[in-house]
Amino acid sequence: MSDVKAKLKRFIDEEVLYGEGTVTDDQDLLGGVLDSLALLQFVEFIETEFGIEVADEDMVPANFKSLDAVDAYVGAHVS
Amino acid sequence: MTALSLPELLARSARGRPDQRAVVADRTLTYAELDDLAGRVAGALASRGVKRGDRVGVFAPKSAGAIAALYGIMRAGAAYVPIDPASPVARAGHIARDCGISALVADAEHRELIRPELPDSVLTSLDVDGLDSLPAADATGEPGPQDLAYVLYTSGSTGSPKGVMISHRNALSFVEWAAAELGCGPDDVFSSHAPLHFDLSVFDLYACALVGGTLHPLPADAMSFGESSARSVAERGITVWYSVPSALVMWVTQGGVEPSMLSSLRQVVFAGEVFPTPYLRKLRGLLPTGTGLNNWYGPTETNVCTYHVVTDQDLAGDSPIPIGRPCAGYPCEVMAEDGSLGEEGELLVGGPAVTSGYWADPQKTAAALVPNPRGGQDLWYRTGDLVVRRPDGEYLFLGRRDHQVKIRGYRVEPGEVEMAIYSDERIKEACVIAIEDERLGHDLVAFVVSADPLTEVEVKRTVASLLPRYMVPATVHVRTEALPKTSTGKIDRLALAREGTDA
Lengths: 79, 503
Known about the structure:
A: mainly alpha; B: 503 residues; five-stranded mixed β-sheet; five-stranded antiparallel β-sheet
């Protein structure tokens, strides 16, 4: 697992599921894991942790539908 | 003629427009089908011992069956008690016991979850996905206008939620005003975004039934992104949208939303929180020219009591949008701290929509309901909201008299979160502060004192096991030294607020 993906996974496991569950790489994050509140916290985490800005036009389901998708998005934006 | 109860709205539309689509959700029901299903629920509950005045819990997502169940419960003369399906089971059980439900309507998953928590008062339970198999039943007699229609639980400052009691007359006063104000008719397609335990759902459900329109409960995953919810509007041809501002802010702060997706919208209504004016200006630009933009205000205890139609002038500057003027039939007054009536102070609301109080809690009821300040016999509700009345008669919201905050439109009492934190006996002191956040409205920050090595996640997990997710602090500071105190020995919330903002 990439370093980025491990950090993303740890955030969701700890800050969203409070250590009472775990997400898999291709699990659908939008069908029950991330509600709109958790999603915004997740985006704040990504921006702080990886020093990138998630642009308005990137706030679309395709970029957040799974850990794999977020990993790819972050990977493409970290300089 | 004015209806006497909420289920009468359904019965009338079922007679007048039996083949019109009433609900489009996990399945589509016409008014005749929804009415038939509601009748089955009412018949089953009555035959199993549920009586007029009883409370019936509903612990399930908002589906076509759940909506039929609400009508069936009310038709049996009982009040429905919607419980957040995402709620921790301890809280769900507390609510069920607090109001002594005599029956439960749930899906299989939620029924299993809550079973160990149910009070002895429960006589029967119905499977929300199996209502069709109940025997068809004739009308069981409509409830009266003074009977309770529902009990909604909202955050309580002393550690447990309180049940707001709303009668049919209370709810109808609001619903009839709302449908008329927006000019709703049978061609309207209502999006239904709020969950059943959130009072915004009262408008969607019953204004729609009143006019014989079509209701579209939106699935949760349609609400995560602006693009998803805007697509839902386009696909379903939504004409009337009612939600908290945050759901609309996503349309202007996220990608993928085109004006063409929103072209069916005739009326857009928001309530529950302040809508930042710059975002509202952007929203105006996305919507069709003639679409009405409405700011509604009101606590669960009164439903909506003031309203404001957003004008171009409102959007020209960055001043906050007023919460507006009283709805027809809702007398309002502003009370200063010394009890005198005037222009600035706490908003008091009277009229037929005002709750009769909190379930089995005369103390909280007495604190919230006060004698009519104009001298009548009726009781008025103290909102706890501080307002100022402008010369043109419109109210501006200034803030709260207490520590209550809104998160995603939900009322949150920091005191209830503190009580949840204290359930961990290793914690000596806890204080929860709400810090304003541009995107989230408010963030909860907890300051916790413990001699034991406690992690932030442990504290969050404790809270999440007792309270809904929106009440879990975003940040927890665990420390060993005592929290700062004021000269009177109370925890210095201002000092902590500064600390929370700087962090």
